[in-house]
Design brief:
The protein has a single domain, classed as Gcn5-related N-acetyltransferase (GNAT) (Aminopeptidase), CATH 3.40.630. Helices cover 26% and strands 32% of the residues. The protein is built from six helices and eight strands. An eight-stranded mixed β-sheet has the order 1-2-3-4-5-6-8-7, with helices on both faces. β7 and β8 form a beta hairpin. GO terms for molecular function: acyltransferase activity. Its EC number is 2.3.-.-. Pfam families: Acetyltransf_3.
Length: 191
Amino acid sequence: MRHPLDTLDWPISTERLLLRRASPDDLDATWAFRRLPETQEWVTAAVKTYDDYRERFLREKLLADLLVIELDGRVIGDLTLKVQDAWAQEEVADQAENVHGELGWTLDPSYGGKGYATEAVRALIDISFNGLGLRRLHAECFYDNESSWRLMERVGMRREQHTVKDSLHRTRGWLDGLAYALLAEEWPAHR
């Protein structure tokens, strides 16, 4: 089955950035920032070695969902968009196929505080709603990952859930979790 991101024309430019599909050639560029302790603090899987990272990065499903963020030809971060089915009753399940998306992002910390992550995530939201026709996007993070949830709020996502100590962090133990979402009809560029 063709991945929804395959239906778009890449790359996509924003005011300062270029978003494109990730390829195996992006392994070293993404490892450069994903290996950093401040990055590994919040990512789902903090791989310790280059070989472990290469094995994870080159997995077909992971690579299919991955975009890279470039600034002046340099990879400064990555984005994920996992297109999913919505929950639906059996009689209408076909109408719920590939209508939701789960967002994720990682930015090289040396490029933080300049609005690049906000610009890239806004572009990904626009791609999701206007390019792919998704109806809902969501993202989750640990409550302690303030930069992530503040980014979700900056791009207009709504906090839908604050859970108490339900999310297990590899070094911090059980932490609160947050879930944010946005509907296509709420996205200003969609109106």
